[in-house]
């Protein structure tokens, strides 16, 4: 009887040990969406590395340069610098004040281009910008302000296609009236016009929704359209919801590969109750592909701590991919409040912030505000960014799958000091290098070529990226002795 008891005890012990033993995890880590392998080899985390380029008030471009060649040179100077820093995306403001960087049937040519609203600049500005970005393998995201028409009186003459009843005039801002169904449709039509005519990679909105510092006059609109809402705050949030959903729907119906991103303020309460943007709801509904909160604060800020806000947005980004906006303009600035002054007098703050986002499993990129501050390099912040982007980055798959799935490269081989491989279809290739397969690898190149000169001993593999940034399985490793 004792022998049998001992036998059963041993069986129970073995059972519990087996049940509690951690299984070998061969699934991809959570912080690497659509990774190339299903393997224990650690590939580097994907990330978009972007820059906002402000054109309203000529802030970043053209900065008072109204000659065609001067404008082109200024823009390509930016892109060449970005390319040298392994920045892989630009967010260019193509509609900052109810205007356009292209020949639009809905709005006048932007004043930012020539200094005169409505004046044809004599070249296709948007096509030039997109083509130059793509020539450098930099994505182009078309940044639009949703409602804003003007911030300075006297307000400009409205475009002939605009019904004046669609516009609300306040002492400090003129906007499209967010409550009107005609406005919801017009905004969607403007987006459709852009994505139909131009090869943009994304449509991007910032945080200009309802204006926060004016008393909104919408009694008549609430009486006419607000029957389904309990109060005006819900009504206003519902109006912005309709605009966002309308843009999402027109993108999906027209050109679904285009990525839709929104950059809200960092403060969730401000978004919800001051500008009436229910951003987590949009993320939960799948209406936005990417969310880029403007985390323009220092780590440890007593009222808006960078890390706390990062964690909040990571929790409430839902179906959207999270990226982080950084206040490049604050580095070296002398007009900051005392609570944040010291932190932004050294580029170490930027390094800490980017390292923090890279460790966050929901975060897949960093966007800098704004372009001219990369030129200025105050307190060495550009040099710091360059050091953080030593190797190229791979943009993750963000939107809807349209292109055919990428196929694993074939015939990967070494010929002397040249790595070679074969691909099919219109794809780019990613070359990875591992000095030690037990440690995280690095990206050596994201390229349209099928060869790469190499020098270091170690392990190499190649993947392909399709037009949607979906990545194939990796090739077998080749080893250079």
Summarize the structure.
This protein is an alpha/beta fold and 481 residues long. It has 14 helices and 18 strands.
Notes on the protein architecture:
With 481 residues, the protein is of the alpha/beta class. The protein contains 14 helices and 18 strands. The protein has helices at residues 2-20, 68-84, 111-114, 125-135, 181-197, 219-225, 232-254, 268-273, 279-285, 306-315, 338-341, 348-359, 371-376, 381-388, and strands spanning 48-53, 89-95, 139-144, 148-150, 167-169, 174-176, 202-205, 259-262, 290-291, 321-327, 363-369, 410-415, 418-422, 428-434, 442-447, 451-453, 458-465, 478-480. The strands form four sheets. It has an eight-stranded parallel β-barrel with strand order 1-2-3-7-8-9-10-11, surrounded by four helices. It has a four-stranded antiparallel sheet with strand order 15-14-17-18, with no helix packed on it. Residues 1-32 have low confidence and may be disordered.
Sketch the major β-sheet. Answer: 8 strands, parallel, barrel
- Indicate the low-confidence ranges by residue numbers: 1-32
Number of separate strands: 18
Mean pLDDT: 92
Gap from first CA to last CA:
64 Å
Strand order of the largest sheet: 1-2-3-7-8-9-10-11
What share of the residues lie within helices?
25-40%
Spatial extent as radius of gyration? 25 Å
How many alpha or pi helices?
A: 14
How would you describe the shape?
globular
């Amino acid at each position: 009887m004792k022998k049998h008891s001992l036998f059963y005890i041993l069986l129970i012990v073995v059972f519990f040990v087996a049940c509690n033993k951690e299984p070998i995890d061969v699934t991809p880590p959570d912080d690497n969406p659509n990774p190339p392998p299903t393997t224990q080899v650690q590939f580097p985390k994907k990330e978009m590395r972007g820059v906002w380029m402000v054109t309203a008030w000529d802030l970043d471009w053209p900065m008072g340069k109204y000659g065609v060649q001067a404008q082109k040179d200024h823009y390509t100077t930016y892109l060449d610098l970005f390319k040298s820093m392994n920045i892989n995306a630009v967010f260019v403001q193509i509609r900052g004040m109810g205007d356009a960087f292209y020949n639009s049937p809905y709005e006048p040519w932007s004043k930012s281009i020539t200094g005169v609203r409505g004046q044809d600049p004599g070249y296709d500005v948007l096509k030039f910008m997109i083509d130059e970005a793509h020539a450098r393998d930099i994505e182009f995201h078309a940044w639009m302000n949703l409602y804003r028409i003007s911030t300075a009186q006297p307000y400009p003459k409205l475009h002939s296609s605009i019904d004046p009843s669609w516009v609300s005039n306040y002492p400090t801002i003129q906007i499209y009236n967010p409550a009107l169904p005609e406005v919801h449709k017009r905004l969607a039509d403007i987006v459709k016009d852009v994505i139909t005519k131009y090869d943009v990679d994304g449509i991007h909105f910032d945080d200009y929704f309802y204006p926060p510092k004016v008393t909104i006059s919408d009694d008549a609109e609430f009486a006419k359209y607000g029957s389904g809402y309990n109060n005006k705050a819900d009504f206003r949030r519902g109006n912005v919801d309709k605009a966002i959903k309308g843009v999402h729907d027109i993108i999906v119906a027209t050109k679904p590969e285009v990525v839709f991103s929104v950059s809200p303020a960092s403060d969730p309460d401000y978004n919800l109750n001051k500008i009436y943007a229910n951003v987590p709801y949009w993320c939960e509904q799948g209406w936005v592909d990417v969310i880029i909160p403007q985390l323009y604060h220092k780590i440890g800020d007593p009222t808006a701590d960078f890390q706390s806000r990062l964690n909040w947005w990571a929790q409430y980004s839902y179906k959207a991919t999270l990226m982080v906006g950084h206040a490049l303009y604050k580095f070296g600035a002398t007009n900051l409040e005392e609570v944040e002054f010291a932190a932004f007098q050294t580029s170490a703050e930027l390094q800490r912030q980017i390292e923090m986002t890279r460790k966050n499993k929901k975060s897949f990129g960093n966007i800098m505000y704004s372009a001219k501050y990369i030129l200025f390099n105050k307190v060495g912040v550009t040099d710091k960014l360059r050091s953080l982007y030593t190797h190229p980055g791979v943009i993750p798959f963000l939107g809807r799958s349209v292109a055919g799935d990428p196929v694993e490269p074939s015939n990967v081989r070494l010929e002397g000091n040249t790595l070679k491989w074969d691909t099919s279809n219109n794809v780019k290739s990613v070359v990875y290098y591992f000095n030690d397969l037990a440690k995280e690898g690095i990206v050596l190149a994201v390229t349209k070529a099928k060869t790469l000169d190499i020098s270091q001993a170690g392990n190499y593999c190649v993947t392909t990226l399709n037009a949607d940034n979906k990545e194939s399985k990796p090739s077998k490793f080749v080893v250079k002795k």
